[in-house]
Backbone:
């Protein structure tokens, strides 16, 4: 299995606190992976490093084949390489319609002058309509995103990620604030997406992770504590100690 | 069933463009027909000049709205570009006119003057006031109108590009960026105040109302011509700005205003977009300045002081940020009211024991209305039009009905 993303012994500290400590992590071209860990384990920092928001003090992040380093790129360049990120809190552009939000995310040139010359076409309209119905917002395309409910905003953000057509999807707590029905939909979608691309899900909720039915990486104090199936890691005494305390 | 995405021509999607153009056309024709040069003469030439200058200020306000209302950068240095435009066109106006005067006086000599003597005479005339007789390097192209016109666009554009590149690249945002823009215009003003800056220090450039080569045409006619030019520039810039903010580009620009980080994660080079808008706005502002100062007749470094740019921000805020026509309304209404109240013609209010003299109290009233607008009507005057046009923010009262009920909140669900 060739690795799409290879995180090679990275470390980062904030004011002396080691948020990430010699962390290594690989993910393949089409793989679903759950990353779990207690608060402060470094899950969000890990995503910040991969997406270019935070620079590690040591180590390297390699991407694709032939591997190139993501560390020399800024957030926008990494996003254009095909790394999509879903934030914990839904961040959509509330003052713009669902259609505008999706159109902005559609895979196309990001250069200011190409954007200036960009015109909607029948194909782009269809794509927006398809994406909207895929995330259950077909009735809402003309509404402002700010009017949507919390769950709908989460879905819109997922729709925007899909529009970007990323090769690697980083999803931060997708189930937060969702109802049971919405969670089931989300699980199904993530599993389906992972058939054609790499998906990394950061999650607290063990039930949700169990439903994903995939390889699990447990982070603790900025490094990998255990890796394997959920049953495998939950039997690990270290994991039990970290999660349940003594 | 998917809602059909509506796609209409630009004008139909932006009916306000037609309205603005129509109002501008009617205004220009009306002023022309009432002017001394082309009509009944009801409007004196000085008023025609005030109206023409007001159109230039409105043009600067449209550019400010692009930068502040759409891109979200509260630039407090826009008038630096405005004044630069004025200085650059002023160089040609002053040089060419002085040259013709000097040539006329030297023509009485028995031997015709050489070009070097002519230039020396011009330099003496222009720079004698700051104790210099040499033509500074920055006046190298002052003899050529096409080059100076090009510089009107190029110099402010380049300044905005370099300043913006440095500031945006280091991700300076919010109030820090505002302070930086203010520092830029202040530094430029202080430099221009020096006698050896090459721009005649605090004397500035004067006599700009006399257009070289148009000696036979009186100010009454010229004032109407400049009004036409200003109206045309405003119309073109308005269409350009409306087009810019209407499509996907506008969508991205507004997204940068609302959540810059998120736009980065969508893969857009945020700095590039900021640079395009900031530079374009600087160039529009410079054109406004280049049209303003020939009508004003004089320019000096005081025009670049930060207060001028702050006024511009106040006009846009009162008119309505994020609405291009709001910027025009704000600039026209507030600047005309300002000149009326500070012109000494506004009747004082006689209170028992105190006389409210508007020359003194107008600043206070303006400041107070700025605070009130910011607090109670953040959309400014344009908010009234939004309300008339039925563009209302959703009424979001009551508790959330829960995720399964969609976006409706209690109050909406009842209605």
Residues:
């Amino acid at each position: 299995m060739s690795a799409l993303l290879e995180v090679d012994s990275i470390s980062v500290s904030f004011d002396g606190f080691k948020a990430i400590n010699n962390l290594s992590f690989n993910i393949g071209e089409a793989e679903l992976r759950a990353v779990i860990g207690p608060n402060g384990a470094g899950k969000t920092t890990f995503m910040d490093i991969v997406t270019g928001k935070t620079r590690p003090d040591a180590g390297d992040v390699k991407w694709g084949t032939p591997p190139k380093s993501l560390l020399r790129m800024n957030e926008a360049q990494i996003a254009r390489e095909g790394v999509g990120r879903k934030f914990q809190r839904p961040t959509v552009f509330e003052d713009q319609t669902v259609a505008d939000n999706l159109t902005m995310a559609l895979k196309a040139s990001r250069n200011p002058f190409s954007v200036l010359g960009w015109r909607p076409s029948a194909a782009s309209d269809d794509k927006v309509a398809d994406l909207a119905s895929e995330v259950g917002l077909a009735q809402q395309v003309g509404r402002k995103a700010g009017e949507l409910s919390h769950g709908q905003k989460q879905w819109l953000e997922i729709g925007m990620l899909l529009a970007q057509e990323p090769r690697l999807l980083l999803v931060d707590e997708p189930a937060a604030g969702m109802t049971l029905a919405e969670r089931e939909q989300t699980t199904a979608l993530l599993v389906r997406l992972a058939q054609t691309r790499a998906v990394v899900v950061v999650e607290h909720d063990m039930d949700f992770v169990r439903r994903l039915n995939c390889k699990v990486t447990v982070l603790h104090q900025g490094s990998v504590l255990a890796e394997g199936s959920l049953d495998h890691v939950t039997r690990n005494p270290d994991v039990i100690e970290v999660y349940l305390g003594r | 069933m998917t809602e059909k995405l509506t796609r209409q021509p630009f004008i139909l999607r932006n009916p306000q463009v037609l309205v603005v153009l129509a109002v501008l056309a009617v205004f220009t024709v009306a002023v022309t027909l009432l002017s001394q040069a082309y009509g009944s003469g009801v409007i004196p030439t000085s008023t025609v000049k005030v109206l023409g200058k007001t159109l230039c200020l409105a043009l600067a306000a449209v550019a400010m709205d692009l930068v502040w209302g759409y891109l979200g950068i509260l630039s407090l240095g826009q008038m630096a570009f405005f004044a630069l435009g004025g200085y650059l066109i002023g160089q040609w106006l002053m040089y060419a006119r002085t040259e013709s005067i000097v040539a006329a006086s030297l023509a009485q000599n028995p031997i015709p003057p050489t070009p070097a003597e002519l230039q020396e005479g011009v330099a003496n005339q222009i720079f004698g006031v700051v104790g210099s007789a040499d033509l500074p390097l920055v006046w190298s192209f002052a003899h050529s109108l096409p080059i100076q016109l090009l510089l009107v666009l190029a110099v402010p554009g380049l300044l905005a590009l370099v300043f913006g590149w440095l500031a945006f690249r280091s991700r300076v945002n919010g109030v820090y960026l505002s302070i930086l823009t203010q520092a830029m215009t202040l530094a430029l003003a202080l430099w221009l105040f020096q006698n050896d800056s090459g721009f005649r220090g605090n004397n500035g450039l004067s006599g700009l109302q006399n257009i070289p080569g148009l000696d036979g045409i009186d100010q009454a006619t010229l004032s109407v011509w400049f009004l036409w030019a200003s109206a045309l520039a405003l119309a073109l810039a308005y269409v350009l700005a409306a087009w810019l903010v209407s499509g996907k580009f506008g969508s991205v620009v507004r997204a940068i205003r609302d959540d810059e980080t998120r736009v980065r994660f969508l893969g857009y080079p945020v700095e590039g977009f900021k640079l395009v808008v900031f530079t374009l706005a600087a160039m529009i502002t410079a054109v406004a300045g280049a049209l303003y100062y020939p009508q004003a007749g004089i320019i000096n470094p005081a025009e670049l002081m930060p207060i001028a740019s702050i006024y511009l921000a106040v006009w846009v805020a009162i008119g309505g940020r994020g609405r291009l026509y709001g910027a025009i309304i704000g600039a026209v209404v507030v600047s005309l009211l300002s000149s009326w109240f500070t012109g000494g013609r506004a009747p004082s209010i006689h209170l028992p024991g105190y006389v409210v003299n508007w020359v003194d109290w107008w600043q206070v009233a303006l400041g107070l209305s700025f605070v009130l607008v910011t607090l109670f009507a953040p959309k400014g005057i344009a908010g009234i039009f939004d309300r008339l046009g039925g563009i209302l923010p959703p009424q979001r009262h009551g508790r959330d009905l829960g995720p399964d009920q969609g976006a409706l909140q209690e109050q909406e669900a009842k209605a």
Q: What stands out?
A: Chain A has a mean pLDDT of 88.
